[in-house]
Amino acid sequence: MNIKRVCCAIITKENKVLIAKRSDEKFKGLWEFPGGKVNKGESDKNCLERELTEELDIKTNTGKIFSEVNFDYPNFSIHLLAYHSEIIEGEPKNLEHLEIKWVDISELSKYKFLEADIPIVNELITIY
After folding, report:
1. Burial track 28-64 (b if 16+ CB lie within 10 A, e otherwise)
2. How far, in Å, CA of 91 to CA of 100, rounded?
3. Strands, DSSP E only, in 73-115?
4. How far apart are CA 113 and CA 55, in angstroms?
């Protein structure tokens, strides 16, 4: 089975984290941490900074890895890498999602996340 390498950003501010609601047909309405697929020959850092510019119109600095998840969906598998990211320019604008919002980390469990993102949600809740 094809394994997709995907990077997502953990962007925090005052005990809140930025989450985004998917607009695509397959996962419409589910929440995720912003990011996307790594292109062939692209580094995780370049992928994440490109995706965040495309999706949210922000410039970011990618920090240390926060979490890694391997998850099998029915038709594909993903290797999801969550990185701490810091906004260095701009305010997040919703360019691709149904909605974006800053959420108290303690309230993340109230949102319906993509299955692959749930271990990251649980880790965030435990640490913060």
Report:
1. eebbbbbbbebeeeeebeebbbbbbeebbebebebee
2. 12
3. 77-89, 99-104
4. 18
Q: Is 64 helix (H, G, I), strand (E, B) or coil?
A: strand
Query: How far is 36 from 50, CA to CA, in rounded Å?
Result: 9
Q: Where are the alpha helices (DSSP H) in the chain?
A: 44-56, 118-127
CA dist., res. 109 & res. 106, Å (int):
8
Query: Amino acid identity of 60?
Result: T
pLDDT tens readout for residues 7-31: 999 999 999 999 999 999 889 999 9
pTM here is 0.95
101 half-sphere exposure, CB direction, 13 A CA radius: 11
- Per residue in 26-65, pLDDT (tens digit) is 899 999 999 999 999 999 999 999 999 999 999 999 999 9
Given this model, what pLDDT does residue 128 score?
78
Q: Is the dihedral of CA 11, 27, 123, 2 positive or negative?
A: negative
